[in-house]
Structure formats: C-alpha cells, structure tokens
Design goal:
The protein folds into two domains: about 325 residues, Divalent-metal-dependent TIM barrel enzymes (TIM Barrel, Alpha-Beta Barrel); about 60 residues. Helix content is about 45%, strand content about 10%. The chain is built from 15 helices and ten strands. The strands form two sheets. The chain has an eight-stranded parallel beta sheet with strand order 8-6-4-3-2-1-10-9. A two-stranded antiparallel ribbon has the order 5-7. Strand 9, helix 10 and strand 10 form a beta-alpha-beta unit. The longest helix is centred in the C-terminal third of the chain and has 27 residues. It is globular.
Length: about 400
Amino acid sequence: MADAYQPKPEHRFTFGLWTVGNPGRDPFGEPVRPVLSPVELVHLLAEVGAYGVNFHDNDLVPIDAAAADRDRIVRDFKAALADTGITVPMATTNLFGDPAFKDGAFTSNDARVRAYALQKTMRAIDLGVELGAKVYVFWGGREGVETDASKDPLEALKRYRDGLNFLTHYVKDRKYDLVFALEAKPNEPRHDIYLPTTGSFLAFIETLDHPEMVGVNPEVAHEHMSGLNFMHAIAQAWDAKKLFHIDLNDQAFGRYDQDLRFGSHSIKSCFFLVKFLEDVGYAGMRHFDSHAYRTEDVEGVKDFARGSMRSYLLYKEKARRWNEDKEIQGLLKELAAAPGDGTPDVGRYSAATAEKLAGHAFDRKALGARGLKYERLDQLTLEVILGVR
C-alpha cells in the first residue's frame, strides 16, 4: 500500500538552497556539516521528493564571482535542474549579509549603497527569471536601526518605497512575468526593523506605484517571534488577495529566529495553518524556510527535509478529518445557526434594515447566559490532531 504522506509534485513543496545547504553554523559555533554545492543540493532535494528549489543570488553565485565563473555555475545549475526535474519557482536577493549593507539596503543613509542595492537586485532578478522564477521575495533584513537618532523613519519609508517602485518599473519594462512578495520580520538582526509585520506590509503595498504586482511572503517564525497568530496574518493576506508566497517553519513564541522543522513545535497552530491553506485552495508553493538541527549530518538534513513535507501532509489529513467529523461540524452549525427570533440580518446595510435593527428588542441577559461549547470544540480538535478521533 502506498504511503499517503509521501510528497508528490502537485503538493508544490520547495526548499531554499540556504535551508538544506545550511552547514550548521550559529553565532556560537563553527559549521558541523560539509558545504554542498548548488548542484549537489538540487540532487539532494530530488532524492527526498521536493518539487522546487529557491535561492538568494549569492547562494548560487558568490558575490565576488568573475563573469566566466558565474556563467559556469549557472550552466551547471541548469543542467542539474534538467537532470532532476526540480524547478525554480522563487528567487530573492541577499541585501543583508555583505558589510556594504550594514545600515540597510534600500533605506541606507548612503545613496551609493541604495544604488548598489538596486543594481544587485536587478541582476538577481534577471538571473531568477532566466531560471524560471515567477515570484521574487524581498526580506529587508537590515532595513532598520539600532538608534532612532540615525534615521528619519518617514525618509526611510520613502527610500524603501522608491526602491521597490524602481524595481517594479524595471520588471515591467523588461516584460518579465514576475511578482514581488515582501517578507516581514519584527526584529533580528537589527534592533528595530521597518515594517515588522505582515499587516504593516499590506498597508505599505497600497502606497506603491504598482500595488497589483506586489504581495506578501509571510513566515511562521517571524510572526511567532512577536507572539502573533500566524494563521490570522495569512487570512488577512488571503482576504487582500496578496498571499503570493509563504514560508513554512516553526518557532517557539518570543525566542530568537529558530527556523525549526515545520510542524515540530507549535502543533495546534500548524494544524490550523494547513487547514486554512487547504480549505481556501491556496495554489502557491509550500516553501520550507528552515534548517536541520546543528546535531545533524547530511543524512539528518535529508530527514529534516522529508519530515517537513511529511508533517504538512499529516496536518492536511487531520484537517480533512476535522472537516468530516460529525460532532465538530454539528457544533459549528449550531454556533452559526440563524436565531429565529426576528433578529435583523445585518450582513449588508440598507435603510430598512437599520430601521428594523434600531427598534429590535434584544434579550441581553439571554445573550450573555448562552454557553458556546468552545471547550468541547477545542477538545475535539485536539483529539483529531492526536489521532484518537
């Protein structure tokens, strides 16, 4: 009998070169795993059953590579993609690692840095499109401050806006089939990051020259770092038709950016996230932006990648069971039932409805006395997740 939790191409599971390629270095320790080449990482992802691979420009081509080296690396990478059938759905630019970006990229006080950031991104966009990317992600890892004495926040937001406007015009002039997805993070590596939440970016997008081609790329860990409900951020992005991409991982609330294997820590939160994505029919990539534990060797990295995809599919199956559970659905139906006492339907405004509502007599005490059975509903949810229903 086939394993129902094995990844298939239609699941659209993707990983970044920087995820499975992470050698286990952290601020307190040296690498513990060999550095694998992009070609080796493509073959690793094919082995574990992934659909696609994503990359920062310098994950693939070193920042100081000569033109001939760049062409050779890209040629070898294309050959690996062709050999394995792995696709490149998304690309991004590293605008945070090099010392030139220590004060930000698009928001840097140095106009030369801002111009260099645009040049670097233009070249990286060209490379991403060449390899098939349809989504381009922007994470402003250094777009922020340690002290508010250093920057005027209004000027910084203007610079941010100018940078993204420049690049949207560039993409349109080149006639690229590409959209942008902005990724929020509340803090780290800078003390304060501009536009720290998904909601912040959703508001900011509406101020751009081409808001129709800019959406968001929310990440589980980034919302959990600040104690927020990630599924609610996803719902807001979906409602705004701006969920262009998503980063899946896991995270203990209030910690540093842990990038844990998806579904391994916040079990109920991950269940409701997967349930939401599947219920609304999200058709984009399921991208895993996370790392194997530092304890692991290369085989452990493969376990990490397989576990990420398998966990998503396990949650997907639990969501199906939740949706089909008769007692759960009965409780939901009861909660949403029409009152039957003449209460006006206030779904849409009309003068007649407003007049009827103004004159309606509510039994306030009865409304407050009604039990809603959320304890039972939550317990049933837990039992579905734990596999006893």
